[in-house]
């Protein structure tokens, strides 16, 4: 019916085909299955700026081939052990056609290499002359300290300033830190 109205309006069949050309669209679940990631990962990548937001939001949100290609590129970069910030920088501003060329084919695929193998390879490589080799202390296995269990707490002084504390701490240090926090808050309230 819509097609008839458009034909009456003077549009020919090639214009109609262009207008109604089928662009593959995927639901979040379908995209996740095709890219072999979870829907939560896709949402995270969108929030981090690695994937563009879908044009339509809500229960009928659909994703395109661009999302699928970018997800495949992200996975390829992750196989090369690149951090997300570097991946974001490499994909920024790239079109769907360029995403495939962003991944350098000269790089060997490392998908089968584990992270431990990668770290061993990095540690086995000779240090560059610009950075001195870190000093290594030899500690006998019996003398190695027990790893301490701790957590970091974040205390907001102002919306732009915060203090990070590793807990547990001694009672004396805890009292000093509480005084420091109160003093810092008071200092920033004065200005």
The oligomerization state is: single chain
Q: What do we call the CATH topology of the largest domain?
A: Multidrug-efflux Transporter Regulator, Chain: A, Domain 2
Helix/strand-derived category reads mainly alpha
> What share of the residues does DSSP label as strand, in percent?
5-15%
The value of Rg in angstroms is 27 Å
CATH level-two architecture of the largest domain: Orthogonal Bundle
CATH class of the largest domain: Mainly Alpha
**What's the mean pLDDT score?**
75
Q: What's the overall geometry?
A: extended
| Helicity range | 40-55%
- Could you say how many structural domains there are in total? 2
Outline:
This protein is 48% helix and 8% strand. By secondary structure, the chain is mostly helical.
How would you sum up this structure, described in words?
This protein has helices at residues 2-8, 13-19, 28-35, 39-47, 65-79, 84-91, 96-102, 115-124, 171-190; strands at residues 151-158, 161-167. The chain has 191 residues and is mainly alpha-helical. It folds into two domains: 2-108, Multidrug-efflux Transporter Regulator, Chain: A, Domain 2 (Orthogonal Bundle), CATH 1.10.1660.10; 151-190, no CATH class. A two-stranded antiparallel ribbon has the order 1-2. Strand 1 and strand 2 (161-167) form a beta hairpin.
Write the layout of secondary structure elements.
Layout (H helix, E strand, L loop, with lengths): L1 H7 L4 H7 L8 H8 L3 H9 L17 H15 L4 H8 L4 H7 L12 H10 L26 E8 L2 E7 L3 H20 L1
Antiparallel strand pairs: 1-2
Helix pairs in contact: 5-7
């Amino acid at each position: 019916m819509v097609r008839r109205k458009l034909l009456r309006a003077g549009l020919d069949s090639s214009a109609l085909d262009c207008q109604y050309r089928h662009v593959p669209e995927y639901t979040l679940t379908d995209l996740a299955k095709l890219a072999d990631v979870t829907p939560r990962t896709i949402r995270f990548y969108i929030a981090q700026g690695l994937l563009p937001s879908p044009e339509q939001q809500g229960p009928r949100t659909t994703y395109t081939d661009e999302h699928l290609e970018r997800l495949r590129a992200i996975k390829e970069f992750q196989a090369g052990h690149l951090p997300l910030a570097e991946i974001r920088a490499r994909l920024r501003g790239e079109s769907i056609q360029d995403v495939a060329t962003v991944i350098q084919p000269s790089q060997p695929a490392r998908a089968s290499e584990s992270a431990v193998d990668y770290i061993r390879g990095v540690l086995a490589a000779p240090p560059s002359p610009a950075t001195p080799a870190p000093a290594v202390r030899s500690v006998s296995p019996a003398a190695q300290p027990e790893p301490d269990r701790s957590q970091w707490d974040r205390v907001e002084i102002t919306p732009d300033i915060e203090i990070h504390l590793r807990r547990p701490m001694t009672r004396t240090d805890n009292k000093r830190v509480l005084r420091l926090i109160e003093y810092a808050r008071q200092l920033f309230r004065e200005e």
